[in-house]
Amino acid sequence: NARVRARDVVAKAAAGDYSDYGASTRFDELPLSQKTKDALRKAGYKEMSEIQRAALPHALCGHDVLGAAKTGSGKTLAFVIPVIEKLYREKWSQEDGVGCIILSPTNDLAGQIWEVVRKVGKHHNFSGGAIVKRTGIEQEKERINSLNILVCTPGRKQILVLDEADQILDKNFKSQVDIILSQIPKARQTLLFSATQTKSVKDLARVSLKNPEYISVHEQA
Ligand code: ADP
Ligand code: MG
Question: What protein family is recorded (predicted)?
């Protein structure tokens, strides 16, 4: 069946054999769950953008990714799809708590990313939402801490996504980001995306990237 076949393809890719992906250019050529494929099709996503084509095969087979492609190039789907597929394959349920944390520099962007997660995950059963900062920093810290204590199961493999990573890793976010990083297991998959590969993005030790795939795509304007 489709899911077993998808798992075979992903296992091959994980072993370094990408032949089954060929030169996939459409989402429906990737080994995705039918639920995800249906949602993508209904949302009107057919052809992958360049960063999606380059990053998705790696992200789907569990590699860490450090991807750079300019604003508007479709980086959101390059991490939302692997997040949903991984939790689905792991049969992640409500009782398993937080399986993925996506960090975003602004509330607006957080809301937009959540809308994409909702759209792509609409046939799946995952709970979630954008945690929007409306109160002071102290209350937000409390909230982040209580969320982490509540839901982070040590040793459990999770996925960490940093969108606009250069901004997230900037000193303005340092204390908040360090709190989050200290609470989540180091044994995880990390997907890090930004418009540019800045010096702070290369601060790999801080986010514990392991042997990441460096992907840089700059389409002609
Ligand atoms: P980035 O994060 O790289 O700035 P986004 O992920 O916000 O880019 O995507 C920019 C726009 O492109 C969004 O409106 C999104 O819906 C659209 N988009 C992304 N991927 C595709 C695709 N494969 N096909 C069509 N539209 C896409
Ligand atoms: Mg973006």
Answer: Belongs to the DEAD box helicase family.
Q: CB neighbours (10 Å) of residue 212? A: 17
Bridge-based pairing state of the strands 65-69 and 188-194: parallel
pTM: 0.75
- Asked if residue 72 has its Cβ within 6 Å of ligand 1, the reply is yes
What ipTM score was computed for the predicted complex, to two decimals? Answer: 0.99
Residue nearest to atom 24 of ligand 1 (CA): 45
The Cα–Cα gap between 142 and 145 comes to 5
Is 104 a pocket residue for ligand 1 (Cβ < 6 Å)? no
Dist. CA 206 → ligand 1 center (Å) = 28
CB 169 within 8 A of CB 40: no
Ligand 1 neighbourhood includes 45 CB (under 6 angstroms): yes
Tell me which residue has tokens 């997660």.
117
DSSP one-letter code for 116: H
State the ligand closest to the CA atom of 28.
1
- Tokens 């949903």 correspond to 84
Per the CATH hierarchy, to which homologous superfamily does domain 61-217 belong?
Answer: P-loop containing nucleotide triphosphate hydrolases (3.40.50.300)
Distance 198 CA to ligand 1 centre (A): 22
